[in-house]
Amino acid sequence: MVSHRRSTQPGLNRSARATVLSAAAATAAATLGAATANADPQDTPRSVKARIDRLYVEAERATEQYDRAGENADRLRDEVNRARDRAARGQEHLNRMSESLGSLATAQYRSGGVDPSLALLLSCDPGSYLERAAALERLTERQVAEVREFRQTRRSLEQTRAEAAGALAELERNREAAARHKRTVERKLAQAERLLDTLSGADRADFARASRSGREDVFVTAAGLPPGSARAAVAVMAVHQALGKPYVWGANGPDGFDCSGLMQWAYARAGVSLPRTSQAQRHAGHTVSLSQARPGDLVAYRADASHIGMYVGNGQVIHAPYPGAPVRYDPVGMMPVSSVTRV
Questions:
Q1: Residue (of 319, 301, 311) closest to 343 by Cα position
Q2: Which of 4, 124, 181, 259 is catalytic?
Q3: Residue 259 annotated among the catalytic residues of the structure
Q4: What whole-number distance in Å separates Cα of residue 234 and Cα of residue 210?
Q5: What is the pTM of this model?
Q6: How far is CA 256 from the centre of its chain?
Q7: What gap in Å lies between CA 170 and CA 80, rounded to an integer?
Q8: What does DSSP assign to residue 170?
Q9: pLDDT tens-digit profile of 194-224?
Q10: Taking the C-alpha atoms of 80, 82, 86 and 89 in order, what is their torsion angle to the nearest 10 degrees?
């Protein structure tokens, strides 16, 4: 999703999937750094283009962090909803048990008064009841089981409520992190756009052409290779349908895409649920060598896998490059390849 300048860094390094908590926002702010928005009078078109390229790379990395924070927020939202459902069911069960134990107290009162042990159970501190052996001796075996179940249910309910509260707090931290990443992306893209405006029309055209360049001879490819699987074939058809759609950062279709959003959308058409980020997508199947790439394989770029495209055969990938550039074909060697994944 960014400009594709060639790098001297070799590919095929793998990195562990990063986790995103709120601390990621601070890391992003430190690593992305602010860039001068306006061209320096001493800048050459070449140096301006290099700065634009760097801003696009930084924006792409921030976009991946934004996507990851959003994916994390979705997961946490589901956790909160499940915890709330469990808490509601637990409360209903607790209420029914309280009614049952209350009926027992009523029956004992009518037969000669409430058993002191039961009165203790129904007091504000029934948890201490089971520690009183003398009281337990006055309950039937069934009553003991009911008291124990009551106590366990209440403890479970308290734990569930605590889990829900923790998930809610983490959800809020991820929302805040996503907002910070969003501001970072917007700032980087605005800086890149202002720098682009300083270039002449010819230089802008050169920049666009350079962004599409790459090593055509990364490997010798045989024409007409079949897709890696039936679902890969469906994903390849889907990604072809996205050609020409605009790059929209943070989007996963159907009207616009960022790089990982396009891969997620295409494979969803084949009934495959991919993770949201390119770093996670590179681990969504098994790794193959670049020379073994088949249509439908995911090609991750740079050592940090901050960009991704789909190999479609004949040495080409389809991907969402960067703002202003639609979903398109490019050479698979447009930038250093870090991994090839067969889903």
A1: 311
A2: 259
A3: yes
A4: 31
A5: 0.55
A6: 18
A7: 10
A8: H
A9: 887 888 878 777 777 666 555 444 443 445 6
A10: 110
